């Protein structure tokens, strides 16, 4: 038997392979921009491991197709070109449920945010009532922004609880105890009438900071949320760490004081009993017994330079640093971000955290670690909820919802 070599067929196969490779590279670039957000061509080359020439060629092609925009910028003191996806009409929604607040926000596929709004909730709010309010807020936001509901492809929901990654049920709810055991995937999908993806709020705070801004390229980022509860979210190469049980980052329930106060989790002397906003407010109320004290009163007092309020935040920070130090010894993170409602007046809290952490951890483990206050403030979790949903949309190809 003789084999016949067909030069034309070989050329056709080679051309087909090149075309398929080009298509895969384009998909890689578009996917990277969708997941990691706008970035320079040099960053795209590093993240995709494509050559600078290939990136330049693909960006030029996608710009001509109006799938991306390219604008001059300065990166590292040098001229560069920043590339971003052009919105394609699809929209994601973020919902952040807290102990006493509810926030919603929307984001398009170009990562442009709009429609931010929030409201306060009773501290013992029930899922049915809260999700009904969330549905109303989302509908009002979309209507005012001129977005049709059919353009919303996914909704990310942040909750201050640990969730079973398989069932979606709340497995640890020290903040929203009335939500424990509820199938939140089913409840939120039905109430919002949208496909949903849920995640712990501290994890979404980590996504918000690791997915945007100056920390989008860091290897390891730790986000510490200080609120009614205290939790940590871990992001490695921009992706959150997820445990099989759904319980991760619950630093608020590490015991600091033998025989201390009983915590909501049932143990004694947990971090949350000495450093949460709940404890700070209670301590400030004892100092100011003639007035009804809320967290906003503590924040106002700190902003006004009240020495007692400042001392309470610093001492809380020192206790939180005791919980962060072992994390630093274990992970030696690039960045530790401190967030939550106190972030906007949290200099004393922050100083206490940094001093205590560095004092109790190996100097070599934190030598390169940057400690920063969140620049997203109270909006980190809802921003992260949008980013989580957007990443799912980009990687899984969600289409518009048809009503």
Structure, described:
The chain has 403 residues and is of the alpha/beta class. The chain has helices spanning 7-36, 41-48, 52-64, 127-145, 184-192, 201-210, 272-275, 277-287, 295-303, 307-331, 347-360, 380-396, and strands at residues 39-40, 68-75, 78-85, 91-97, 101-108, 113-120, 152-159, 162-163, 170-172, 196-200, 220-226, 230-236, 239-240, 335-339, 370-373. The protein has 3 domains: 8-85, Orthogonal Bundle (Arc Repressor Mutant, subunit A), CATH 1.10.10; 91-205, ATPase, nucleotide binding domain (Nucleotidyltransferase, domain 5, 2-Layer Sandwich); 213-380, ATPase, nucleotide binding domain (Nucleotidyltransferase, domain 5, 2-Layer Sandwich), CATH 3.30.420. It has 12 helices and 15 strands. The strands form 4 sheets. The chain has a 5-stranded mixed sheet with strand order 6-5-4-7-10, sandwiched between helices. Strands 13-12-11-14-15 form a 5-stranded mixed sheet, sandwiched between helices. A 3-stranded antiparallel sheet has the order 1-3-2. Helix 2 (41-48) packs across helix 3 (52-64), helix 4 packs across helix 5 and helix 8 (277-287) runs antiparallel to helix 10 (307-331). The longest helix is centred in the first third of the chain and has 30 residues, at 7-36. The protein is globular.
